[in-house]
UniProtKB/TrEMBL annotation:
It comes from Brevibacterium antiquum. SUPFAM superfamilies: Bacterial exopeptidase dimerisation domain (SSF55031), Zn-dependent exopeptidases (SSF53187). One of its GO terms (molecular function) is metal ion binding. This is N-carbamoyl-L-amino-acid hydrolase. Its cofactor is Zn(2+).
Length: 421
């Protein structure tokens, strides 16, 4: 069984834990920021460094690396010729001024877990049913190219490949151009998945508060974004009469407040919302802004709450437009339904945690993950390790080495079970 180990293999596992930590902290040097974070947005040179590292590590350890047309990287270990693959992984890209753990932990843990699965297979002499591959999904974060969770959503058939290749960043560079610029415009057929497992930091404080080692995700929150384009009129900040101004930023500021205040219509913490991205044009001290583009993010466990908040905001934005005699375009996008993960996978994680002698708790994910996209295509298992203070998408994001090692053990157990079918 995956939980038992001989003295020899447990000392091998210990050295491998140390190697895992060394590699994890090495990858955190790619795009390292001044305050212990990383800035490794999709398809930047820093993202390329982390991708090149993964390719080198995987090839050096006997994996075959494939890159598909949207830049997803798969490190494949064939254990049974022609069988489908258990996919395990996460993403190496980060938010701007992001943390070291969100995503990268799951990819690097998956590399070590896959290697251990291979060693276990060789030691046991038993023939597994499926192959295993580690995946680094393209653009989970969506900070540079929207929407987020892009590579896994293309793989899962939720997003159209050509549409995503045409998506542009704020500079007008397309995904296709950016992939080619760093040499990750792949042509390989991705491995066919039979199941998916991912480990990630919690990004909340439930595990920390309850002193629990592992979280297993039962369901994901309902989420949606609003793409808001406020179109005013550019003029001189000094020379234009106040009555003649159509200031896109004043109207935009009222929208930001409306998005923040809409949560007050619901129970405490039932709805969360923010305007994350906000771009002002032309952004000069002496020019009344002609345009503000912003993206609001609305999330709740209850789909009806998000829908009600969305309706309220559409109405409030219409009246702000009227009040300022300004055009405001609002589009709903990146709507993700509430999704349940299969009970068999939840129980698999619970069994793996018991094998490792650890504690586990079921929970919901408020953050979006590649597993949410993958769960549309194959049964997915999503697991969390504790986040100190529950913070993420910032440099202060932190998880202890000890918790990362525990999660690696659990992921190895789960992957072993999945490979044995
Ligand atoms: C991306 O990180 C998300 O949580 O949606
Ligand atoms: Mn993530
Ligand atoms: Mn993230
Ligand atoms: Mn995420």
């Amino acid at each position: 069984s995956p939980g038992t180990s001989t003295a020899a293999s447990s000392s091998a596992a210990a050295s491998s834990d140390a190697a895992f930590l060394t590699d994890f902290h090495h990858v955190a040097t790619f795009g390292a920021t001044d305050n212990d974070g990383v800035d490794r947005q999709a398809l930047t040179l820093e993202d390329k460094q982390s991708r090149d590292w993964m390719r080198g590590w995987a090839e050096g350890n006997g994996f075959e690396v494939r890159v598909d047309a949207i830049g997803n990287m798969f490190a494949c270990l064939e254990l049974v010729p022609d069988a489908p693959y258990v996919l395990i992984g996460s993403h190496l890209d980060s938010q701007p001024l992001g943390g070291r753990f969100d995503g990268a932990y799951g990819v690097i843990a998956a590399l070590f877990a896959a290697l251990r699965v291979k060693e276990n297979v060789a030691e046991s002499g038993q023939k597994p049913r499926f192959n295993i591959a580690v995946v680094n999904w393209f653009n989970e974060e969506g900070g540079r190219f929207a929407p987020s969770i892009m590579g896994s959503s293309v793989y899962a058939g939720l997003f159209d490949l050509d549409e995503m290749l045409a998506v542009q960043d704020l500079e007008g560079t397309s995904v296709a151009e950016a992939l080619a610029a760093i040499g990750y415009n792949g042509t390989d057929a991705p491995p066919e998945a039979i199941s998916y497992a991912e480990i990630h930091i919690e990004q909340g404080r439930i595990l920390e508060r309850e002193a629990t080692n592992i979280g297993v995700v039962e369901s994901s929150w309902y989420t949606q974004k609003l793409d808001i384009d406020v179109l005013g009129e550019q003029s001189h900040t000094g020379a234009t009469a106040m009555a003649d101004r159509h200031d896109a930023l004043v109207a935009g500021a009222k929208i930001v407040l409306a998005v923040a205040d809409v949560v007050n219509e619901f129970a405490d913490e039932a709805l969360v919302s923010s305007v994350g991205q906000h771009v002002v044009e032309p952004n000069s001290p002496i020019v009344v802004p002609r345009r503000v583009h912003m993206v609001a993010d609305l999330r709740s466990s209850d789909p009806d709450i998000v829908k009600a908040a969305r309706d309220t905001l559409h109405q409030q934005i219409a009246s702000i437009a009227l009040e300022h005699d300004i055009t405001i375009k609002v589009e709903d996008f990146d709507v993700r339904g509430k999704l349940y993960f299969p009970e068999t996978g939840v129980e698999l994680a619970e069994k793996a945690v018991a094998n490792e002698g650890l504690s586990i708790r079921r929970l919901e994910t408020m953050a979006g993950h590649d597993s949410v996209a993958m769960n549309h295509r194959v049964p997915a298992v999503m697991m969390f390790v504790p986040s100190v203070d529950g913070v993420s998408h910032c440099e202060r994001e932190f998880t202890t080495d000890e918790d990362m090692i525990r999660g690696l053990g659990v992921l190895t157990n789960v992957a072993t079970e999945l490979v044995n079918g």
